[in-house]
Each structure stands twice: as structure tokens, then as C-alpha cells.
Amino acid sequence: MEPKRLVLSKISSSYYSEDRKLAVLNRVSLDVKAGEFVSLLGPSGSGKSTILKIAAGLLKPDRGRVFANGREVTGAVKVGYMPQQDLLLPWKTLLENCALPLLAEGKPRAESHRRVEKLLPVFGLAGFEGYYPGQLSGGMKQRAALLRTVLIDSNLMLLDEPFAALDTITRENLQEWMMSILHRFNRSVLFVTHSIDEAIYLSDRIYMISDRPGRIVTELMVGLPRPRSRTVVTSSRFLNYKQELMGALAGA
Ligand SMILES: Nc1ncnc2c1ncn2[C@@H]1O[C@H](COP(=O)(O)OP(=O)(O)OP(=O)(O)O)[C@@H](O)[C@H]1O
Ligand SMILES: [Mg+2]
Question: Which of 21, 155, 160, 173 could share a disulfide with 84, CB 3.0–4.6 Å?
Fold first, then answer.
């Protein structure tokens, strides 16, 4: 059996304000195995981002337990977490922002910068290393945040719609690159997306979440062989998966 990198067991979670409780997750159980790419699909507001925050140890659920690499998560854990809103520091350049996780690990500045610089072309950011976030487009900020997340030395990545603000070509390039790097480094990913096509194309497994309070309504194993090429999206297997997920989403 593949070891499990992430396990969420019967998670229920709510947000509390002065006069009300908003139930967001209802007994959500899911896992991500070593080297596995798992997507979370579901309507807006169903609690997908909340699941990632709980998995990263940044939010404590009302009920249920979380394990990362076999250890129970009780506070923030070192994972490659990319929040839905990028968190680049406005007073640091793109290069400095991306180098932050390496510096935090105690790597020397020159080496950290070199490692970032090597990846800039892959993310279409070459030549912009000296720019501040305020001088970058939305998509560029998103790519910088993704580059930074990839540099975090962890076998588990939690990515919250990392490709949402990108045009199709950039999006497809990054999808290809992501699949190659994940394979190379045996990384596991929990990936949030609104796109059924993207989820099928990238994933080994997909969880569909219902409207709030979110619960898992469907779990789909994607049996498309790897490496995958773009033409797979027209195959009858792909279209069958799509139909199944569209049906589940309509009923979610
Ligand atoms: N910090 C917070 N305080 C109070 N309520 C919150 C907070 N964060 C999220 N919520 C509420 O929890 C629910 C789920 O939010 P969440 O961000 O997890 O949804 P989501 O599935 O990621 O949605 P989207 O697809 O739009 O990103 C929403 O109703 C939202 O208003
Ligand atoms: Mg979200």
C-alpha cells in the first residue's frame, strides 16, 4: 500500500462571528497518497479553500483529525501551501519574494536567488525579477506565487486554484510543467480547481464536494494512462469522466 501523505478524517468545520455560526464542512474525509495528484471540485463557497487551510494546519476544525506524513497536525505544518489569494510581499521584488522559503530554510542568499532565477523562464517570468508585485499583472503574481510554493522543500503541496487567472496557453504550459516536476520529485498534490477538464487531465483521483456545508458527494478514480497528452481530452474515457462529474456537480 502506498503511504498516505495527507489524511483528513471526518472533518466538520464552521466559522463563527458574533451572532452566527456558519457550518462550512460536514464530516469530510479524504486522503492523498505518495506521488498522487488529487483534485477537489465543487461549487463556489462549498469549503474547498477551508479544507486546504485545515490541511495546512492554519485552521482548527470543530471535529475530526488531520494527519500529514503520518503525524497528527495540531498547528501549522511545513507544506507547500499556495493560498487562493497570492501573498507576495509588496515591498519585495519578485526575485526576493520567490526566494523567501529558501532563505527561511537557512539557504544562502546567492544560492537561493540562483535557484529562483533558474525557474523564471519556466514560469514566463524571466526579465521581471526586479519588479515589485504592484508592477506585475494578476497572472504574473499567480505564477510567482506558484514558483515560490514549488521551492518549498515538502513532499506535499496544497494548491488553491493556482491557474485560475491565466490564459489558456500559459495555463497549459504550467500544467505540463507541473506534471513533469511532480513525477520527477514524487510530490503529492491536493489541488483545488473549478475546471472539470483541468481536474480530469491532471488528476489520479477527484473528490467532488457539495454545496455548503460541504461534504464529499463523489470520488472518482481517473484511470487515464500517464504520461498524458492533450489529445486525451477527446477520448471517450475522458468524456465519460466529464459526464459523470457534470452530473455530480449538478446534483451537488
Ligand atoms: N475567514 C472566514 N470567516 C467567515 N466565513 C468564512 C471565512 N472564510 C470562508 N468563509 C465562508 O466559508 C464558506 C466556504 O468558503 P471557502 O473559501 O472555503 O469556499 P470555496 O469552496 O473555496 O469557494 P470558492 O470556489 O469561491 O473559492 C463561504 O460561505 C465563506 O463565506
Ligand atoms: Mg476557494
Answer: 160
pTM score of the predicted model = 0.94
Number of H helices, E strands in the chain: 7, 10
Residue boundaries of the structural domains of the chain: 88-153
Give the residue ranges of DSSP H helices in 157-230. Answer: 168-185, 196-202
- Reported as a single tens digit per residue, the pLDDT across 102-154 is 999 999 999 999 999 999 998 889 999 999 999 998 889 988 998 999 898 89
β-pairing, 205-209 with 37-41? Answer: parallel
Burial class (CB in 10 A: 0-12, 13-18, 19+), 89: exposed
- Identify whether the C-beta of residue 207 lies closer than 8 Å to the C-beta of residue 216: yes
The alpha carbon dihedral of 205, 210, 211, 212 has a sign of negative
Ligand 1 pocket test, pick from 50, 59, 81, 209 with the greatest ligand atom count within 8 Å of Cβ, gives 50
Rg, C-alpha atoms of the chain: 18
- What is the Å distance from ligand 1's center to 52 Cα? 11
Q: Which is the closest atom of ligand 1 to the Cα of 47?
A: 18
Which residue's alpha carbon is nearest to atom 6 within ligand 1?
15
As to burial, measured by CB atoms within 10 angstroms (0-12 exposed, 13-18 middle, 19+ buried), residue 35 is middle
77/185 Cα distance (integer angstroms): 20
Q: Which ligand 1 atom minimizes the distance to the CA of 17? A: 4
Q: Which of 11, 13, 15 to mutate for ligand 1's pocket (most ligand atoms within 8 Å of CB)?
A: 15
Beta pairing partners, 6: 32, 68
Widest distance between CA atoms in the chain: 53
